[in-house]
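Summary for the lay section of the report: proteins are chains of building blocks that fold into shapes. Here we show the chain for Carboxy-terminal processing protease and then a coded description of the shape we predicted for it.
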Amino acid sequence: MGSKLKQFGLVMTGVVAGVMISLNFSANADKAALAPLPVEELRAFADVFNAIKQGYVEPVEDKKLVTHAISGMLSGLDPHSAYLDAEAFKDLQVGTQGEFGGLGIEVGMEDGFVKVVSPIEDTPAYRAGVKAGDLIVKLDDTPVKGMNLNDAVKRMRGKPKTDITLTIMRKGESRPIVLTLTREVIKVQSVKSKVIEPGYGYVRVAQFQENTGASLVQHLDKLSKEGQLKGLVLDLRNDPGGLLNGAVGVAAAFLPPEAQVVSTDGRTEDAKRQYRATPEDYLRGSRDDYLKALPRGIKDVPMVVLVNGGSASASEIVAGALQDHKRAVVMGTQTFGKGSVQTILPLNGNTAIKLTTARYYTPSGRSIQAKGIEPDIVVEEGANGSARRVREADLQGHLGNDRDPEAERKLQATKNGEHKPGEDDDEAQPRFEIAGKDDNQLAQAINLLKGLQIVQNKK
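The coded shape description reads as follows.
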């Protein structure tokens, strides 16, 4: 037995070394990353592996055990690192193009359950009334407890026109909510626009995809042709993020050339970068600079950026950049607070890992991680406040904020019971229609733009 375990430990050492090479770790990485492999820990792994192979009630394939080990190793780091099998990797690639099959929910894990971060607009989940913060405890008749996130997502996705029943626990509800949803091909329209009233345009970015920057330019051109713009609202509410280059492109549409949009910092040299309003940083695989087609005067139009607790990641990059450069007034409520960068590292067999490799920072050096963007002007969703939303700081195992000790102190106080949840949380409000007649935040944004126009005319 000892000989077998020793042999297996050597094999596992080789496997881990091979994985490190396949992930192309930088030679300039932190010395801790290049330290000798932890032989004792690998022996413990070998012991567990062998115990399962010898004594588990049913035979288990080696590949399944190793896959689960990799998945657990990544998911234990933070809520955003994950192992992507061939199907999940393909879904991710398709999703960045703006079309995939499923229900239309951005999700994470919390205490073993699937937690809704944000339902995507115009999808089965959104229309059925799924809300941010909902805990999905059952998928059809299968309990979610014990599933990993990828398995849960797989079950929710499927062929269009097929049904799935979600059992949901919601704060404030004494009984589970049971919803039967019909899967659809989810086509996320990245950018929408309209004229609110003569001279005042509205552009909404629902998600950052490959074509978001180019689509934004088309919508701005359309708005400009309907009359001279006196003010513009950029709506990033409930935008869960997406591709970094899409965010840089959107910010670059309103910032001077070469202006810094965001910086990233991690342990490897590749993770230490600055992204600026230059074609090299917002174009990917394309030679056509779509920003050359921007209508004249767009970079000078008075702007308001709308955000809320559902604005995450890439949308926080845009809001933070425009705020730091004083290009726009940020209005709404505090954003989600996802200030970490995930890198997709392909493996053999069309699989990959999604690994958190850096934090990102606004041009002034602020870290958004577990804190979010604080609006210049706080405006609630309705007269009685805003709906309480799950944020990055609520996610189990989230990264801390490395540049704001006060934010971390408040977070720890909450965890230690010094601050009782609900003491200054917004009461839940009925969901309103974004850009609809009862959209209080949009109405206040237009009022502010009119005031800015008056001041500008006086000058």
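Put simply, here is one thing we learned. Residues 1-32, 418-429 have pLDDT under 50 and may be disordered.
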